[in-house]
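Suppose a colleague, Dr. K., hands you the sequence of a protein chain of 489 amino acids and asks what its three-dimensional shape might be. Before reaching for any lab equipment, you can write down a predicted structure in token form. Begin with the sequence itself:
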Amino acid sequence: MKRNNMLKRYLFYFLISFVYCKNAIEWRSRSIYQILTDRFSPTNYTYTQCMESPLSEKALRNYCGGTYRGAIDQLDYIAEMGFNAIWISPMPSNIDIETIYGVGWHGYWLNHLYELNRNFGNEQDLIDFITAAHKRDIWIMLDVVANHVGPNLTTNYFPFNKFEHYHHPLCFIEDYNNQTQVEYCSIGNEQVPLPDLNTENSFVISTFLSWINKIIRKYQFDAIRIDTFRHVRKPFWKDFIQSADVYSLGEVASSNTSYVGSYQTIADGVFHYPLYFILKTIFTDNDQTRQSMLILENQVKQNELDLKDSTLCGIFLDNHDQDRFLSFTQNQIRIQNALVYLMFSDGIPIVYMGTEQNFTGNLNVENGAGDPWNREALWRSGYDRSNWIYNYLRKLNQIRFLLKELYGEIFFRSHQQTIAVDQYTYIYKKGPLIIIVSNQSFQKSKYISLPSEITGRKWKDLLSQEIIHLNKFNLYRIDNWYPKLLLSI
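The predicted structure, expressed as tokens, is then:
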């Protein structure tokens, strides 16, 4: 009898795991909204913390009060924008000792692996949040950290409380081209040291493998985002990802496509940092530094050479570690072009919370577009659903849903193919869709010949709803630099 009950329990958890744990193929058609748990929404709509103006750096480096319960209250804000996946902050307990960079409100300064960060809520709160998201068909990607712990050298960490659990001697990375330093030295500094975990140690390895397997099954996470992916040896990650058994997306913050691509042999996808560095130079309002669209097309070619599968990579315009994208441009047409490329190029689009509310950071201070100024509490915006960027993102997500309805996963598996490119305009085909993006205005009209394999002289721009008829030479005339999504009808 006892044995039968155990078998039934095992089958129950197996079936639950089978239903909720999503693989890489299923993630291709998703669009991800990144939240910082502490900055998204507090419990019971108590929007009082981190509301002062101007906001101080000290306030931004401490807890603002966002919780899992609060996130439930604002799930419809995300759903109505059309996003069907959320990337959340790391869940374990973090260092709360004050440093020159504040406390570990962000989740990346581990203190106790097995305890939840009580500032975000308890176990039931997290379960209820994920359940509420799943009811809306929103999948949850958990951020995980296995490279380092928080800056707390005077108190034991748990369970990594022995000398051999860390790399010694403590060193700091001085040369990011030196892979030995990258993997064995700390990403911190002398003021805020972040002890580097010894991921060759058998206890450290077995602890993390067991932990990730258990929390994925217990909470029904759908994917993992892996922090500091390049800073840990690849064999460790291979076992870690196998234990997680969900879609994995690794952070490799480098502009070298070949180097970043080498990590896609381990994870399902990597954050497309090489593309990120190009996009912010292409779609900038600065006429002196703006780059040609030709470098974007070169990057697309590089993707095919160096990435195992670019359609499984995470593409983004900014995140909590990078300057706010909207600090580079406030031109509405340029923003539209950037967002269209983000949502309709190869890869899984990720939008950092606050973009839809035109967050720019604090441009009145030095480096005000970056940390900590790029980590504002979202409730400062009032969750304004009338903001034009919020509604533009909703439109783009609706078009993605339409394409999935019409073509299924085939559209998202297809790789973009260049049709034409010049200094200001890039035109490419992805499946049956023709995408036209530009980064500045131009004086003379442009004519393009649409691919012969796509028949039909009648097209519809899914953005403007305009019906377009090609001329007798089968040419399409481009008169302005608004983005276009053309589908043959």
